[in-house]
Amino acid sequence: MAAFDIDISSPFPSGFTRGHGGPNSGGHHPPEWYIQFGMDLGAPPGTEIHAAFDAHITKLSPHDPATDSGKVYGAQLFMRASNDMMGGFYTHLADVPANLAVGSTVSRGDVLGTVLASGGIPPHVHMALVEIIGGAPGGRYQGVDLYQLFLDISNSDTVTSVSFMQDGSPPVPGGGSGGGGSSGGAKVYHLGSLRGIQEGLAVLGFDPGGIDGLDGPKTRAAVTQFQASQGLSQDGQAGPNTRAALANALIEQGHQVDGV
């Protein structure tokens, strides 16, 4: 299979305190990749946890306080990149947004929830990444160690392109695989999420304010301005016709889109 690149950023652009252990350390043992390759990244309770890469949710277990026990607590999220050749796992989450469900698309930087504290354990998110050699559903799942990268880029908006080689070798931060994959190299604008719409508006010159996935007045004003430029009904809402027009405008400029 061809190598590919994925843009990755920290789940904590702010609020990160310190690492609490990476793959194959502490309680991170096989056989499950999502435990063995865990990366425990500390932050105060209530700190927002952001998606580290563009993905779609494949499994979601909401937080049920009655089931919290020992080191197993909080909501759990599994997700895969749009090319189904790598994925991730997050746990110890609270306040997962109500609009997230299996099949939901999330853009890198979208809020997935907040840090949950439990049982005197130092508050942190447990995150693990996996490369799926050959692609899901039949590929070989191989956990990967990017713990040092996340220690280096947390508390910043740094975006790192990571090359996944599809040959069993470790992924390489810095990109340069030259590979494809639907997230490979070029930015993909996920217009199924408000954050992706904000990013698309911004690159087209319509200022939505912060790229935060929130439907605030600046975002509605930017949508309205875009609608006016396209001769659409100006209601400030990114409905199907507006998203289709936004997709066409982005494609005309050579960008990649999905989720229309």
Order of helices and strands: EHEEEEEEEEEHEEEHHHE
How much of the sequence lies in strands comes to 25-35%
- How many individual β-strands? 14
Mean pLDDT: 89
Unreliable segments of 5+ consecutive residues = 176-185
Largest sheet report? 9 strands, antiparallel
The backbone outline, from C-alpha atoms, is globular
The quaternary state of the protein chains shown equals: single chain
Number of helices: 5
From the alpha-carbon coordinates, what is the Rg to the nearest angstrom? 19 Å
**Derived structural class:** alpha+beta
Question: Level of helix content?
Answer: 10-25%
Q: Give the N-terminus to C-terminus distance in angstroms.
A: 28 Å
What does this structure look like?
This protein is of the alpha+beta class. The chain is 18% helix and 27% strand. Strands 2, 3, 4, 5, 6, 7, 8, 9 and 10 form a nine-stranded antiparallel β-sheet that branches. A three-stranded antiparallel β-sheet has the order 1-11-12, with no helix packed on it.
